[in-house]
């Protein structure tokens, strides 16, 4: 954080202000450094954010020195995302899940559902995306913005794989839309539990298809980036 506090870029200053505001409000983001043999990382990842506890981890054995700040900023961005917590509450409504599962036994087609049930299905699926794909989109959008600010100020060196992703954007495609589609193309739908039901899979497929052009909201991370 000391390096970030020396930044002059607007988005980096707002990022630091968000972290400070959260800390001063008594809400911390638990951080765990893994990588030693006595404490392996929770997954085969360089870093991660736990949607339930709000904690982040980074694996020192997997993160290269040149990408440390990128991974750190990305995981902290998740912790500053004000859309994940309310989405998790909606997604965790067991009564709604049970009701949707009952309807999934009757039909495979979302358009066959009564209006209020279709709305409930879309709302529940959107909550899942808000803590999954859409959360990654918001965090990576913020990460790239902060990374560019920091690289221009020479706070860190440019990272090869970040540059490779940026270079894939067609000139005619806006950055937000490019990044969303880049992630959407690589994000697999779940297949277990209620997602084994055809109705739920079809509903999720339709919802994701609509947002290929609409794009989800950005919440607090959007405000941090001035968008």
Write down how many β-strands occur, each being a DSSP E stretch of 2 or more residues.
Answer: 3
Oligomer: single chain
Q: What is the residue-averaged pLDDT?
A: 89
Shape: globular
In sequence order, what are the helices and strands, one letter per element? Answer: HHEEEHHHHHHHHH
**Terminal Cα span:** 23 Å
What is the helix tally? 11
What are the key terms here?
227 residues; mainly alpha; three-stranded mixed β-sheet; 11 helices; 56% helix
Describe the 3D structure:
This protein has 227 residues and is mainly alpha-helical. The protein has one domain. It has helices spanning 2-5, 10-24, 68-80, 84-91, 94-104, 115-130, 133-152, 160-167, 175-184, 198-214, 219-224; strands spanning 31-34, 47-49, 56-59. Strands 1-3-2 form a 3-stranded mixed sheet, covered by helices on one side. A hairpin with a 6-residue loop joins strand 2 (47-49) and strand 3 (56-59). The two termini are 23 Å apart. Residues 36-41 have low confidence and may be disordered.
């Amino acid at each position: 954080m000391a390096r970030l506090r020396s930044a002059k870029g607007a988005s980096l200053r707002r990022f630091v202000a968000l972290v400070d505001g959260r800390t001063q409000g008594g809400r911390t983001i638990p951080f765990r450094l893994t990588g030693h043999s006595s404490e392996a990382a929770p997954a085969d990842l360089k870093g991660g954010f736990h949607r339930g506890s709000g904690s982040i981890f980074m694996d020192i054995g997997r993160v290269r020195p040149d990408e440390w700040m990128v991974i750190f900023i990305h995981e902290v961005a998740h912790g500053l995302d004000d859309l994940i917590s309310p989405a998790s509450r909606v997604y965790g409504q067991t009564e709604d899940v049970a009701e949707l599962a009952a309807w999934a036994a009757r039909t495979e087609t979302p358009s066959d559902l009564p209006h209020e049930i279709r709305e409930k299905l879309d709302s529940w699926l959107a909550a899942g995306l808000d803590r999954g794909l859409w959360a990654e989109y918001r965090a990576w959008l913020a990460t790239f913005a902060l990374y560019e600010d920091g690289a221009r100020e020479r706070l860190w060196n440019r990272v090869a794989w970040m540059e490779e992703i940026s270079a894939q954007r067609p000139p005619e495609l806006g950055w937000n839309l490019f990044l969303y589609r880049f992630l959407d193309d690589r994000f697999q739908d779940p297949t277990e539990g209620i997602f084994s039901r055809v109705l739920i899979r079809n509903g999720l497929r339709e919802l994701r298809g609509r947002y290929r052009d609409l794009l989800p909201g950005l919440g607090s991370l959007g405000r941090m980036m001035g968008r």
